[in-house]
What does this fold into?
Amino acid sequence: MNANDIIIGTKLEIEIPEYIKSFPSQTSSYISQLLDVADAKNITIAAPMSEGRYKYLSAGLNIIVYFLNQRQELMHFNATVKEYKKSGHLETFDASITGDFTKIQRRMNYRLDTVLECKYVTVDDHPSTREKPEFKEISSNDFKSAFTKNISGSGLCLIMDNSIDSGMMSDISVDLEGMGQIRVLAQVIRSTSVENKKHEVGMNFVYISPQDSSTLTKFIFQKQRLMLKNNLLSKK
It folds into this structure.
């Protein structure tokens, strides 16, 4: 893949590694747009913006560019700013692509290792063949606490005090750390004992609403981006 494969007008997110290293607590990500493609390695982008203000990019500055391709896959590449231009009210920057195009993993079966607080209750009266089950009203006292070991768009692994038999169903609420809660119906596919008398229970989602699925996907993307940022910080 090269610059010619990106559609003119595609929204871009610009990240500046130099700023991440120097000012880790400040904004280092800016919104832009692809305005022109000169050739496979050279592009023109709109002046990045953050909080309604343009961001000036000096010549020679290294940047990371994120975008969604035509398959809605999250991609990124490294580039170097070449030149600033202004035409009327339009401010632009020419940039030269210096690295390969890389896809950030976002498949439904990508499992993000993260610890999230959960509440669950077994509900063995829900058949797994139902496409859109109705969540029942359940007393808060009936829910038990657990936390995730990992989570994906298609399932999760919980660490809990009690074991659940394979094939059993659970109604689970997951706290996505500031992005709200999602509620899923999941079926146990495995359960094993681990240290400290805990149990590791792997589950596949039987039902998750489109809205909660979208929220979960955004959460996973956000965590992936944070990991990339932390990797940059560790290399300074």
